[in-house]
Write a structure and sequence with these properties.
The chain is of the alpha/beta class. It is built from ten helices and nine strands. The structure holds adenosine-5'-diphosphate and magnesium ion. It holds the Pfam family ABC_tran.
Length: 247
């Protein structure tokens, strides 16, 4: 089998006496959605910060695209295609949907923020903006300010911006948070085909969505992966049911 796109080995991080990551090993392979679930405080966001490089593990290794990136900072990782999708919640409220997506297209091209105005006259960039907006169902909302769109639309704008940056992996921290059943269904449909563009590490509390999307699920409790397997395996695992699914 090919080497995983992203792999963590025995990653540990302690805050005082608290083991937020306790020997975590995890693989993300091409074409898959790997869901990371676990109760609040389990250490999911801490793990994501270590993948992004904004938090350094005390021990263990993180490999990405065939290289050891454990000692690289966030921007060096982002340049390699890791980490850009972490910034997805950085929608600028005073910008329109169009300007926000354009910013993401420009960020990928490595151009400075100040070039945004010129980019607005760049037909190729504008064409891309339209395509990303269409993919997330925001084509009719391009001229609306981000502060005036609905919560679900904002989450979809974040996905459009993540797509525009063309990362080699998507790492999404609770993309369904705060959404109703309809929003969750729309987001589920949107994320489903993305795994073929880049594999997705999906941290999510909505079990309906996780069971619908995941190729694999890992369960984190008190900083430790207590189980990892297919949807069926995780749903039927007695320890997982006890620790997390509320049996
Ligand atoms: P999750 O995302 O699974 O809800 P977190 O990764 O946010 O969990 O937090 C895991 C544990 O680590 C929690 O007990 C949290 O309070 C603690 N924690 C997270 N970040 C810090 C920090 N910078 N300093 C101290 N404790 C932290
Ligand atoms: Mg969290």
């Amino acid at each position: 089998m090919d080497e995983p796109v992203l792999s963590l080995r025995e990653v540990s991080k302690t805050f005082g006496v608290l083991k937020a990551s306790d020997g975590v090993s995890l693989d993300l392979r091409a074409g898959e959605i790997h869901a990371l679930i676990g109760p609040n405080g389990a250490g999911k966001s801490t793990l994501i910060a270590q993948i992004a490089g904004s938090l350094r593990p005390d021990s263990g290794t993180i490999r990405f695209a065939g290289q050891d990136v454990t000692r690289l900072g966030p921007s060096a990782r982002a340049r390699r295609g890791l980490g850009r999708s972490f910034q997805i919640s950085q929608v600028i409220a005073g910008f329109t949907v169009r300007q926000n997506i354009l910013l993401a297209v420009q960020a990928r091209a490595g151009r400075a923020y100040a070039m945004l105005r010129r980019a607005a006259r760049d037909n190729d960039a504008m064409q891309q903006v339209t395509e990303y907006a269409q993919r997330v169902g925001l084509a009719e909302r391009l001229d609306v300010e981000a502060s005036d769109i609905a919560h679900g639309e904002r989450r979809r704008l974040e996905i459009a911006m993540a797509l525009a940056m063309r990362p080699k992996v998507f790492v999404l921290d609770e993309p369904m948070a705060g959404m109703g059943a309809e929003g969750v269904a729309v987001m589920t449909q949107l994320l489903d085909p993305l795994r073929h563009e880049a594999p997705i590490l999906l941290v999510e509390h909505d079990m309906q969505a996780v069971f619908a999307l995941a190729d694999r699920i890992s369960v984190l409790v008190y900083g430790r992966i207590i189980a990892s397997g297919s949807v069926a395996e995780i749903r039927n695992d007695p320890e997982v049911r006890r620790a997390y699914l509320g049996d």
